[in-house]
Protein backbone atom coordinates (compact mmCIF):
# COMPACT_ATOMS: atom_id res chain seq x y z
CA UNK A 1 0.00 0.00 0.00
CA UNK A 2 1.32 3.45 -0.92
CA UNK A 3 2.22 5.89 1.86
CA UNK A 4 -0.39 8.52 2.61
CA UNK A 5 1.76 11.34 1.25
CA UNK A 6 2.15 9.56 -2.10
CA UNK A 7 -1.61 9.10 -2.36
CA UNK A 8 -2.12 12.79 -1.63
CA UNK A 9 0.57 13.76 -4.14
CA UNK A 10 -1.03 11.57 -6.81
CA UNK A 11 -4.47 13.05 -6.07
CA UNK A 12 -3.05 16.58 -6.27
CA UNK A 13 -1.27 15.84 -9.55
CA UNK A 14 -4.46 14.35 -11.02
CA UNK A 15 -6.47 17.37 -9.90
CA UNK A 16 -3.94 19.76 -11.44
CA UNK A 17 -3.94 17.82 -14.71
CA UNK A 18 -7.73 17.87 -14.92
CA UNK A 19 -7.88 21.55 -13.97
CA UNK A 20 -5.36 22.47 -16.64
CA UNK A 21 -7.24 20.42 -19.22
CA UNK A 22 -10.53 22.04 -18.27
CA UNK A 23 -9.03 25.50 -18.74
CA UNK A 24 -7.31 24.43 -21.97
CA UNK A 25 -9.82 26.16 -24.20
CA UNK A 26 -10.85 29.76 -23.60
CA UNK A 27 -13.72 31.74 -25.13
CA UNK A 28 -14.54 35.44 -24.84
CA UNK A 29 -17.93 36.63 -26.10
CA UNK A 30 -17.59 40.08 -27.65
CA UNK A 31 -21.38 40.58 -27.64
CA UNK A 32 -21.72 40.73 -23.86
CA UNK A 33 -20.82 44.43 -23.54
CA UNK A 34 -21.96 47.47 -25.49
CA UNK A 35 -20.32 48.65 -28.69
CA UNK A 36 -19.96 52.20 -29.98
CA UNK A 37 -21.84 52.92 -33.20
CA UNK A 38 -20.65 55.94 -35.19
CA UNK A 39 -21.56 57.46 -38.53
CA UNK A 40 -18.29 57.63 -40.48
CA UNK A 41 -19.50 60.33 -42.86
CA UNK A 42 -21.49 62.23 -40.23
CA UNK A 43 -21.66 63.17 -36.57
CA UNK A 44 -23.92 60.54 -34.98
CA UNK A 45 -22.58 58.36 -32.17
CA UNK A 46 -24.57 55.96 -30.02
CA UNK A 47 -24.04 53.01 -27.70
CA UNK A 48 -25.49 49.79 -29.08
CA UNK A 49 -26.01 46.25 -27.81
CA UNK A 50 -25.40 43.62 -30.47
CA UNK A 51 -26.82 41.88 -32.39
CA UNK A 52 -28.39 44.92 -34.07
CA UNK A 53 -28.30 47.10 -37.17
CA UNK A 54 -27.50 50.80 -37.35
CA UNK A 55 -31.10 51.72 -38.25
CA UNK A 56 -32.48 49.58 -35.43
CA UNK A 57 -30.11 51.25 -32.94
CA UNK A 58 -31.06 54.75 -34.11
CA UNK A 59 -34.75 53.96 -33.72
CA UNK A 60 -34.20 52.65 -30.17
CA UNK A 61 -32.32 55.85 -29.27
CA UNK A 62 -35.14 57.97 -30.81
CA UNK A 63 -32.63 59.49 -33.23
CA UNK A 64 -35.00 58.62 -36.09
CA UNK A 65 -38.70 57.81 -36.14
CA UNK A 66 -40.00 54.31 -36.78
CA UNK A 67 -39.35 53.28 -40.37
CA UNK A 68 -42.74 51.55 -40.44
CA UNK A 69 -44.67 54.80 -39.92
CA UNK A 70 -46.10 56.55 -42.99
CA UNK A 71 -43.36 57.33 -45.52
CA UNK A 72 -40.44 56.99 -43.09
CA UNK A 73 -39.15 54.15 -45.25
CA UNK A 74 -38.00 56.91 -47.59
CA UNK A 75 -37.28 59.56 -44.95
CA UNK A 76 -34.84 57.21 -43.20
CA UNK A 77 -33.12 55.99 -46.35
CA UNK A 78 -30.09 58.20 -45.62
CA UNK A 79 -29.20 55.69 -42.89
CA UNK A 80 -28.64 52.89 -45.41
CA UNK A 81 -26.75 55.31 -47.65
CA UNK A 82 -24.25 56.13 -44.88
CA UNK A 83 -21.14 54.27 -43.75
CA UNK A 84 -21.30 52.99 -40.16
CA UNK A 85 -18.64 51.71 -37.79
CA UNK A 86 -19.14 49.38 -34.82
CA UNK A 87 -16.22 49.30 -32.39
CA UNK A 88 -15.33 48.25 -28.87
CA UNK A 89 -12.31 47.55 -26.69
CA UNK A 90 -11.66 44.29 -24.84
CA UNK A 91 -9.03 42.83 -22.54
CA UNK A 92 -6.85 39.83 -23.34
CA UNK A 93 -5.19 38.01 -20.44
CA UNK A 94 -1.78 36.36 -20.43
CA UNK A 95 -3.44 32.96 -20.05
CA UNK A 96 -5.44 33.47 -23.24
CA UNK A 97 -2.47 34.74 -25.22
CA UNK A 98 -0.35 31.78 -24.06
CA UNK A 99 -2.52 29.37 -26.05
CA UNK A 100 -1.25 27.94 -29.33
CA UNK A 101 -4.15 29.29 -31.39
CA UNK A 102 -6.33 32.37 -30.88
CA UNK A 103 -9.14 32.84 -33.42
CA UNK A 104 -11.72 35.56 -34.00
CA UNK A 105 -15.15 34.16 -34.90
CA UNK A 106 -17.54 36.46 -36.73
CA UNK A 107 -20.89 35.85 -38.39
CA UNK A 108 -23.83 37.79 -39.77
CA UNK A 109 -21.78 40.75 -41.01
CA UNK A 110 -24.52 42.51 -42.94
CA UNK A 111 -23.15 43.09 -45.49
CA UNK A 112 -20.21 45.03 -47.00
CA UNK A 113 -17.80 44.85 -44.07
CA UNK A 114 -14.19 45.66 -43.23
CA UNK A 115 -12.85 44.20 -39.97
CA UNK A 116 -9.82 45.77 -38.27
CA UNK A 117 -8.09 44.58 -35.10
CA UNK A 118 -5.87 47.06 -33.26
CA UNK A 119 -5.63 49.16 -36.42
CA UNK A 120 -4.62 52.80 -36.61
CA UNK A 121 -5.19 53.63 -40.26
CA UNK A 122 -7.95 55.86 -41.68
CA UNK A 123 -11.30 54.41 -42.73
CA UNK A 124 -11.41 53.89 -46.52
CA UNK A 125 -13.84 55.94 -48.57
CA UNK A 126 -15.49 52.84 -50.05
CA UNK A 127 -15.67 49.09 -49.65
CA UNK A 128 -13.34 48.62 -52.62
CA UNK A 129 -10.53 50.61 -50.95
CA UNK A 130 -9.42 48.21 -48.22
CA UNK A 131 -6.48 49.39 -46.11
CA UNK A 132 -3.48 47.29 -45.09
CA UNK A 133 -4.84 46.79 -41.57
CA UNK A 134 -8.09 45.14 -42.75
CA UNK A 135 -8.03 41.49 -41.61
CA UNK A 136 -11.37 40.57 -43.22
CA UNK A 137 -13.18 42.01 -46.20
CA UNK A 138 -16.61 40.37 -46.20
CA UNK A 139 -19.43 40.76 -48.71
CA UNK A 140 -21.57 37.85 -47.55
CA UNK A 141 -24.12 38.37 -44.79
CA UNK A 142 -24.96 34.66 -44.58
CA UNK A 143 -21.65 33.03 -43.64
CA UNK A 144 -19.33 32.79 -40.65
CA UNK A 145 -15.60 33.39 -40.49
CA UNK A 146 -12.77 32.06 -38.33
CA UNK A 147 -9.71 34.31 -38.46
CA UNK A 148 -6.36 33.51 -36.75
CA UNK A 149 -5.50 36.65 -34.74
CA UNK A 150 -2.91 35.56 -32.15
CA UNK A 151 -0.17 37.67 -33.75
CA UNK A 152 -2.43 40.75 -33.84
CA UNK A 153 -3.44 40.68 -30.18
CA UNK A 154 -1.59 42.06 -27.20
CA UNK A 155 -1.86 41.27 -23.51
CA UNK A 156 -4.08 43.99 -22.06
CA UNK A 157 -6.43 46.30 -23.96
CA UNK A 158 -7.30 45.64 -27.61
CA UNK A 159 -9.74 47.21 -30.06
CA UNK A 160 -11.95 45.77 -32.78
CA UNK A 161 -13.60 47.89 -35.45
CA UNK A 162 -16.15 46.72 -38.04
CA UNK A 163 -17.05 49.19 -40.78
CA UNK A 164 -20.18 48.62 -42.89
CA UNK A 165 -20.45 50.36 -46.25
CA UNK A 166 -23.72 51.13 -48.14
CA UNK A 167 -24.95 47.84 -49.60
CA UNK A 168 -27.21 49.36 -52.27
CA UNK A 169 -24.24 51.27 -53.66
CA UNK A 170 -22.19 48.07 -53.99
CA UNK A 171 -25.11 46.21 -55.55
CA UNK A 172 -25.46 48.93 -58.18
CA UNK A 173 -21.70 48.87 -58.86
CA UNK A 174 -21.76 45.08 -59.34
CA UNK A 175 -24.78 45.32 -61.65
CA UNK A 176 -23.10 48.00 -63.78
CA UNK A 177 -19.98 45.84 -64.10
CA UNK A 178 -21.96 42.79 -65.23
CA UNK A 179 -21.85 42.06 -69.00
CA UNK A 180 -25.64 42.08 -69.37
CA UNK A 181 -28.66 43.35 -67.48
CA UNK A 182 -30.17 41.06 -64.83
CA UNK A 183 -33.85 41.76 -64.00
CA UNK A 184 -34.91 42.29 -60.40
CA UNK A 185 -38.22 43.04 -58.72
CA UNK A 186 -39.36 46.64 -58.77
CA UNK A 187 -42.13 48.32 -56.82
CA UNK A 188 -42.86 51.51 -54.88
CA UNK A 189 -39.86 52.29 -52.68
CA UNK A 190 -37.99 49.10 -53.61
CA UNK A 191 -34.27 49.04 -54.37
CA UNK A 192 -32.87 47.12 -57.37
CA UNK A 193 -30.10 44.56 -57.82
CA UNK A 194 -30.79 42.34 -54.80
CA UNK A 195 -29.50 39.40 -56.87
CA UNK A 196 -25.96 40.84 -56.86
CA UNK A 197 -25.36 40.65 -53.10
CA UNK A 198 -25.30 37.85 -50.55
CA UNK A 199 -27.78 39.72 -48.39
CA UNK A 200 -31.36 39.00 -47.32
CA UNK A 201 -33.35 39.77 -50.46
CA UNK A 202 -36.30 41.30 -48.60
CA UNK A 203 -33.99 44.05 -47.27
CA UNK A 204 -34.30 45.55 -50.77
CA UNK A 205 -38.08 45.64 -50.34
CA UNK A 206 -40.84 43.12 -51.05
CA UNK A 207 -44.54 43.20 -51.71
CA UNK A 208 -45.18 42.78 -47.96
CA UNK A 209 -42.44 44.99 -46.49
CA UNK A 210 -40.34 48.15 -46.84
CA UNK A 211 -36.86 48.53 -48.34
CA UNK A 212 -34.81 49.45 -45.27
CA UNK A 213 -31.42 47.94 -46.24
CA UNK A 214 -30.27 47.61 -42.61
CA UNK A 215 -26.53 47.29 -41.99
CA UNK A 216 -25.35 45.61 -38.81
CA UNK A 217 -23.79 42.69 -36.97
CA UNK A 218 -26.31 39.88 -36.56
CA UNK A 219 -24.27 36.80 -35.74
CA UNK A 220 -21.65 35.68 -33.24
CA UNK A 221 -18.54 37.70 -32.38
CA UNK A 222 -16.11 36.01 -30.02
CA UNK A 223 -12.50 35.07 -29.40
CA UNK A 224 -11.46 31.44 -28.98
CA UNK A 225 -8.06 30.50 -27.56
CA UNK A 226 -7.13 26.81 -27.56
CA UNK A 227 -4.21 24.41 -27.45
CA UNK A 228 -6.16 21.17 -27.94
CA UNK A 229 -8.20 19.96 -30.91
CA UNK A 230 -11.61 21.63 -31.24
CA UNK A 231 -14.84 20.94 -33.12
CA UNK A 232 -15.86 23.74 -35.47
CA UNK A 233 -18.85 22.09 -37.14
CA UNK A 234 -20.90 18.89 -37.28
CA UNK A 235 -23.15 17.79 -40.14
CA UNK A 236 -25.34 14.67 -39.86
CA UNK A 237 -26.30 12.48 -42.81
CA UNK A 238 -28.78 9.59 -42.67
CA UNK A 239 -28.78 6.32 -44.58
CA UNK A 240 -31.70 3.90 -44.32
CA UNK A 241 -30.78 0.29 -43.51
CA UNK A 242 -33.12 -2.67 -43.92
CA UNK A 243 -33.50 -5.11 -40.97
CA UNK A 244 -31.38 -7.79 -42.70
CA UNK A 245 -28.49 -5.43 -43.48
CA UNK A 246 -25.18 -7.00 -42.43
CA UNK A 247 -24.01 -3.71 -40.95
CA UNK A 248 -26.71 -3.96 -38.28
CA UNK A 249 -25.55 -7.43 -37.32
CA UNK A 250 -21.85 -6.54 -37.20
CA UNK A 251 -22.48 -3.36 -35.22
CA UNK A 252 -23.49 -5.30 -32.13
CA UNK A 253 -27.10 -4.11 -32.25
CA UNK A 254 -29.56 -6.44 -30.61
CA UNK A 255 -33.04 -6.74 -32.04
CA UNK A 256 -35.36 -4.29 -30.33
CA UNK A 257 -39.04 -5.15 -30.15
CA UNK A 258 -40.99 -3.10 -32.65
CA UNK A 259 -37.97 -1.98 -34.67
CA UNK A 260 -38.80 -2.03 -38.37
CA UNK A 261 -35.43 -0.85 -39.65
CA UNK A 262 -32.36 1.12 -38.68
CA UNK A 263 -30.51 4.26 -39.69
CA UNK A 264 -26.82 4.73 -40.28
CA UNK A 265 -25.96 8.23 -39.04
CA UNK A 266 -22.73 9.71 -40.35
CA UNK A 267 -21.46 12.59 -38.22
CA UNK A 268 -19.19 14.64 -40.48
CA UNK A 269 -17.07 16.69 -38.08
CA UNK A 270 -14.86 19.67 -38.86
CA UNK A 271 -11.85 19.60 -36.53
CA UNK A 272 -8.93 21.99 -36.01
CA UNK A 273 -5.78 20.57 -34.40
CA UNK A 274 -3.21 23.14 -33.22
CA UNK A 275 0.53 22.60 -33.57
CA UNK A 276 1.78 20.41 -30.73
CA UNK A 277 -1.72 19.53 -29.50
CA UNK A 278 -2.11 16.28 -27.53
CA UNK A 279 -3.82 13.40 -29.31
CA UNK A 280 -7.61 13.44 -29.06
CA UNK A 281 -10.40 10.99 -29.76
CA UNK A 282 -13.77 11.75 -31.36
CA UNK A 283 -16.79 10.25 -29.61
CA UNK A 284 -20.56 10.25 -30.12
CA UNK A 285 -23.08 9.72 -27.31
CA UNK A 286 -26.76 9.26 -28.04
CA UNK A 287 -30.13 7.94 -26.84
CA UNK A 288 -30.85 4.32 -25.84
CA UNK A 289 -31.89 3.56 -29.43
CA UNK A 290 -28.28 4.09 -30.50
CA UNK A 291 -26.56 0.75 -30.97
CA UNK A 292 -22.85 0.17 -30.73
CA UNK A 293 -20.85 2.45 -32.98
CA UNK A 294 -20.00 1.09 -36.39
CA UNK A 295 -16.53 2.53 -35.83
CA UNK A 296 -14.50 2.86 -32.66
CA UNK A 297 -13.41 6.21 -31.26
CA UNK A 298 -11.55 8.07 -34.00
CA UNK A 299 -8.01 9.11 -33.05
CA UNK A 300 -6.98 12.63 -34.10
CA UNK A 301 -3.36 13.77 -34.04
CA UNK A 302 -1.15 16.17 -35.99
CA UNK A 303 -1.78 19.85 -36.79
CA UNK A 304 -4.21 21.13 -39.40
CA UNK A 305 -7.89 21.34 -40.32
CA UNK A 306 -9.68 18.19 -41.36
CA UNK A 307 -13.02 16.47 -41.85
CA UNK A 308 -13.54 13.38 -39.69
CA UNK A 309 -16.53 11.05 -40.10
CA UNK A 310 -17.95 9.00 -37.22
CA UNK A 311 -20.76 6.51 -37.89
CA UNK A 312 -23.37 5.06 -35.55
CA UNK A 313 -26.45 2.91 -36.09
CA UNK A 314 -29.79 3.82 -34.55
CA UNK A 315 -32.83 1.55 -34.40
CA UNK A 316 -35.89 3.17 -36.00
CA UNK A 317 -39.02 2.62 -33.90
CA UNK A 318 -42.63 3.80 -34.39
CA UNK A 319 -42.24 6.30 -31.55
CA UNK A 320 -38.94 7.83 -32.72
CA UNK A 321 -39.73 8.32 -36.42
CA UNK A 322 -40.05 11.91 -37.62
CA UNK A 323 -43.09 12.83 -39.76
CA UNK A 324 -44.19 16.01 -41.57
CA UNK A 325 -46.87 17.97 -39.79
CA UNK A 326 -50.25 16.33 -40.23
CA UNK A 327 -48.77 12.86 -40.73
CA UNK A 328 -47.45 12.21 -37.23
CA UNK A 329 -45.16 13.52 -34.51
CA UNK A 330 -41.76 15.16 -34.90
CA UNK A 331 -39.53 13.53 -32.23
CA UNK A 332 -35.89 14.62 -32.20
CA UNK A 333 -33.06 12.52 -30.79
CA UNK A 334 -30.17 14.23 -29.00
CA UNK A 335 -26.60 13.30 -29.91
CA UNK A 336 -23.48 14.78 -28.31
CA UNK A 337 -20.30 14.81 -30.39
CA UNK A 338 -17.18 15.42 -28.32
CA UNK A 339 -13.40 15.48 -28.43
CA UNK A 340 -11.52 14.00 -25.50
CA UNK A 341 -7.84 13.90 -24.64
CA UNK A 342 -6.60 10.43 -25.48
CA UNK A 343 -4.02 10.32 -22.69
CA UNK A 344 -6.63 10.88 -19.95
CA UNK A 345 -8.56 7.70 -20.77
CA UNK A 346 -8.24 5.02 -18.10
CA UNK A 347 -9.05 1.36 -18.70
CA UNK A 348 -11.03 2.14 -21.85
CA UNK A 349 -13.17 4.82 -20.23
CA UNK A 350 -13.80 8.06 -22.07
CA UNK A 351 -11.13 10.71 -21.57
CA UNK A 352 -11.50 14.29 -20.44
CA UNK A 353 -13.69 16.22 -22.90
CA UNK A 354 -12.24 19.43 -24.34
CA UNK A 355 -14.79 20.32 -27.05
CA UNK A 356 -18.33 19.21 -27.81
CA UNK A 357 -21.41 20.00 -29.88
CA UNK A 358 -24.99 18.71 -29.70
CA UNK A 359 -27.13 17.82 -32.69
CA UNK A 360 -30.85 16.98 -32.71
CA UNK A 361 -31.81 14.46 -35.37
CA UNK A 362 -35.19 13.40 -36.73
CA UNK A 363 -35.07 9.86 -38.13
CA UNK A 364 -36.77 9.68 -41.52
CA UNK A 365 -36.41 8.44 -45.07
CA UNK A 366 -36.92 10.94 -47.89
CA UNK A 367 -37.31 9.95 -51.54
CA UNK A 368 -37.85 12.21 -54.52
CA UNK A 369 -40.17 10.20 -56.79
CA UNK A 370 -39.73 10.87 -60.51
CA UNK A 371 -41.51 8.18 -62.50
CA UNK A 372 -43.25 8.16 -65.90
CA UNK A 373 -46.89 9.18 -65.70
CA UNK A 374 -49.26 6.41 -66.75
CA UNK A 375 -50.46 6.83 -70.36
CA UNK A 376 -48.19 9.92 -70.70
CA UNK A 377 -44.65 8.57 -71.13
CA UNK A 378 -43.26 12.01 -72.00
CA UNK A 379 -44.18 13.29 -68.51
CA UNK A 380 -43.00 12.25 -65.05
CA UNK A 381 -44.06 12.66 -61.43
CA UNK A 382 -42.33 14.98 -58.96
CA UNK A 383 -43.22 14.43 -55.31
CA UNK A 384 -41.65 13.29 -52.04
CA UNK A 385 -42.13 9.98 -50.28
CA UNK A 386 -41.50 10.29 -46.53
CA UNK A 387 -41.08 7.06 -44.55
CA UNK A 388 -42.75 5.21 -47.41
CA UNK A 389 -45.76 7.56 -47.54
CA UNK A 390 -46.39 9.86 -50.51
CA UNK A 391 -46.51 13.48 -49.33
CA UNK A 392 -47.61 16.46 -51.41
CA UNK A 393 -46.48 19.96 -50.46
CA UNK A 394 -48.89 22.67 -49.44
CA UNK A 395 -48.63 26.19 -50.83
CA UNK A 396 -47.59 28.28 -47.85
CA UNK A 397 -44.50 30.04 -46.54
CA UNK A 398 -43.31 32.12 -43.60
CA UNK A 399 -42.04 35.66 -44.12
CA UNK A 400 -39.60 37.27 -41.63
CA UNK A 401 -41.26 38.03 -38.30
CA UNK A 402 -39.75 41.51 -38.24
CA UNK A 403 -37.96 43.86 -40.64
CA UNK A 404 -34.91 43.60 -38.36
CA UNK A 405 -33.33 40.14 -38.23
CA UNK A 406 -32.15 40.50 -34.63
CA UNK A 407 -35.75 41.12 -33.54
CA UNK A 408 -36.94 38.13 -35.60
CA UNK A 409 -34.40 35.90 -33.84
CA UNK A 410 -35.64 36.98 -30.41
CA UNK A 411 -39.28 36.46 -31.38
CA UNK A 412 -38.53 32.94 -32.63
UniProtKB/TrEMBL annotation:
One of its GO terms (molecular function) is beta-mannosidase activity. Residues 35-218 form the Beta-mannosidase-like galactose-binding domain. Keywords: Glycosidase, Hydrolase, Signal. InterPro entries: Beta-gal/glucu_dom_sf, Beta-mannosidase-like_N2, Beta-mannosidase_GH2, Galactose-bd-like_sf, Ig-like_fold. It comes from the Eukaryota. It catalyses: Hydrolysis of terminal, non-reducing beta-D-mannose residues in beta-D-mannosides. The keyword DNA-binding does not apply. This is beta-mannosidase. The lineage of its organism: Eukaryota, Viridiplantae, Chlorophyta, core chlorophytes, Trebouxiophyceae.
Amino acid sequence: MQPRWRQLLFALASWLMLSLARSENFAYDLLTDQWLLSQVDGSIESAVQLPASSLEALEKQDLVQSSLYRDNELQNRWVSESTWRFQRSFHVSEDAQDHTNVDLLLGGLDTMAHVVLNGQGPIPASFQDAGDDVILRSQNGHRRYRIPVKDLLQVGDNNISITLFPAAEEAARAADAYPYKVPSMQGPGMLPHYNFLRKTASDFGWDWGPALMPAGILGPARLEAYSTAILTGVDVRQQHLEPDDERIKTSGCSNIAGASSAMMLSFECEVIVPEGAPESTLQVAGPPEMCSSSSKAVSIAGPGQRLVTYKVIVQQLPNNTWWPRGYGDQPLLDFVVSLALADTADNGERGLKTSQMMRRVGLKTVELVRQPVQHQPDKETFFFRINGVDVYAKGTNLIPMDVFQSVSAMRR
